Amino acid sequence: LLKNAMAHVVRRFAPSLDSNAAAAGSDASDPVFPPIRVTICSSHSDIVVRVSDQGGGIGPDALPYIWSFTHPLKAKRLHNFHAVRRMEARAGEADSVSPLVSFGFGLPMSRVYARYWGGSVSVHSLPGHGVDAYIQLPRLGNVVENISARRAQASSPE
């Protein structure tokens, strides 16, 4: 969620920061981006994390498909897949790939992990402004892994 927030904020504000700095004749080496706010709250049974950004929100054409691994809108992102090996490179290497490269699997995988541990992930887009994403997880120790024993028994050969 943080990676998505950073990527969208940078994508939205970097061009305007560069053009404003050039117009003012100042150096854009240290741009100021709007903050990405992370709020962590807990109760006796849950932990909730909210990530809020000002990256422009999720477009209405993509919003219904953010939880899909295989929607055609995500197919264009798979052109980055060849870069996986290069992403292993050290940060100081010149030909390394940006850590903000996206394959479109982050949100669906976050939801899979959260559900596995008995939690949830929800995303609320504010068109033209940003996204508020919430992760709710039960505190460790009060639930078991979210695997049905009945399903496991039914699928095992006898």
Quick structural summary:
The chain has five helices and four strands; from the N terminus they run αββαααββα. It is of the alpha+beta class. The protein is globular and about 60 Å long.
Q: Which secondary structure elements does this structure contain, and how are they paired or packed?
A:
Layout: H1 2-24, E1 37-42, E2 46-52, H2 72-75, H3 84-87, H4 106-116, E3 120-126, E4 130-138, H5 149-155
Antiparallel strand pairs: 1-2, 2-4, 3-4
Tell me what the structure shows:
By secondary structure, the chain is an alpha+beta fold. It is built from five helices and four strands. It has helices at 2-24, 72-75, 84-87, 106-116, 149-155, and strands spanning 37-42, 46-52, 120-126, 130-138. A four-stranded antiparallel sheet has the order 1-2-4-3. The protein starts with a helix and ends with a helix.
What keyword list fits this structure?
158 residues, alpha+beta, four-stranded antiparallel beta sheet, 4 strands, globular
Would you identify the regions where 5 or more consecutive residues have pLDDT less than 50? none
Shape: globular
> Alpha-carbon distance between the termini?
43 Å
Chain-averaged pLDDT? 76
Find the count of extended strands (DSSP E, 2+ residues): 4
Q: Give the fraction of residues assigned to helices.
A: 25-40%
Instruction: Specify the number of helices.
Output: 5
Radius of gyration computed on alpha carbons: 20 Å
Which sheet architecture does the biggest sheet show? 4 strands, antiparallel
Secondary-structure class: alpha+beta
Spatially, the strands of the biggest sheet line up as 1-2-4-3
| Secondary-structure element order, N to C | HEEHHHEEH
Measured by DSSP, the beta-strand proportion falls in 15-25%
